[in-house]
Amino acid sequence: MEFKILQKGEAKHHIYIVDDAAKLTKVSGITDAEAAFVKGIFAEEQTTATINQYGRFIYIYLLKSKKTEWLTREACRKSGAEFQAICNKNKAKEVTISNLSGMGFAGIQLAEGIALANYQFLKYRTDAAKITHALQTISFTKDSITVKELSQLGATISAVYKARTLVNEPLNFLSAQQLAKEIAALGKEAGFKVTTLGKAQIEKEKMGGLLAVNLGSQQPPTFTVMEYKPGKALNKKPIVLVGKGVVYDTGGVSLKPTLNSMDRMKSDMSGAALVSCTMYAIAKLKLPLHVIALVPATDNRPGENAYVPGDIIKMYSGKTVEVLNTDAEGRMLLADALHWAKRYKPELVVDFATLTGAASAAVGEHGIVCMGTADEKTKQTFRESGFAQYERLVEYPLWDEYGDQIKSDVADIKNVGGANGGAITAGKFLEHFVDYPWMHFDIAGVSFATSKKGYLPVGGTGYGIRMLLDFLLHYGKA
Q1: 282 neighbors 292 (Cβ within 8 angstroms)
Q2: Active-site residues: which are they?
Q3: Of 263, 276, 405, 415, which sits most exposed with the smallest number of CB within 10 A?
């Protein structure tokens, strides 16, 4: 999707945003009869109207304030998804947005909704040429967006698109090694450093968690390190992003039941896609932050010499883990990455993972479960970013009692804590491997959609990228 500011000329497809019917007088080229027609539609509590002038389409969006600004922003995005469908139905290759409302963000959020809804994954469709959306460009009138806002919008949408595509790729293309290559390509395009450790180096480092999960696979694991370090960073110590990179999860020996349980497991690397593509946006926008991202990657299979329940694994940190469920594999490789992060003496570490069914069951597709040891100011900034981007957060407690559930009689800890509080006991497991300010985000319920909803497509959603970028854009600011 291309974004630009319209310098001159009249748009063939033009969306005008108004917050009062009286502002219809500012709509270019509209007749009195057409204005009366639109007012009639608004009087019937409809918020969108289309005027076909035989050669030019004028779309009017009546923006109504909600209870909060973040709800109003989301209403704009949802309306954007509706306009995306209308524009493609009318074979529009380009649509221009004019924001005539008193809400400066309206045009940007409307465009965001249009762009997010316009994504398609057609790589493997033989009829791709026939079903590709016509809409390719969103332009703005000069007073509807700033150059900086245009740049942020473009980088954000590009990052989300790339993450969705990574998640949508099947295992027979996106192995752990291929994921590392894709990340390297992102680094080359955006301008950040990428280093990938192969199996021999991972063995030399003794990353026991990652190697244990990989035992059942014929494909080697990878550990990818990304770094973006501008000349004058606001943070003296780096922010570290960690993403779970399980490119496919069968459950291992603790095999998942077949019905509706494995068909979307190519998405178990959504955390890896999220942090890698966020790094892409960070570098594209040249944010004044020193940021490092880590992706431990493998598939989880029951073959070869797969680890089994009852095994005791010595982790990268030296801690021992009693494995009671090989389907609780994400925390095993994340633990090694979180221990690796200690070498940077980080200011903050955040991890993203499709970690537990418990998180998905608790909040479904409507938000992200989070928990952590970061200070309250950091948590509050994350919450505000979650609301602003409508990628909302629900914080769970890290009470000691949940830690008791993962105590082991034969090892330091065990990798599952029983039927209750599964999302939290997973977080308590990870907490054993951190000694710095840390936040954990469980994206199991939001990373992949089985049906289209508004601006979220079927498949990979890229959910969480906009929230994380918003947080980083406000990082270090009062």
Answers
A1: no
A2: 256, 331
A3: 263
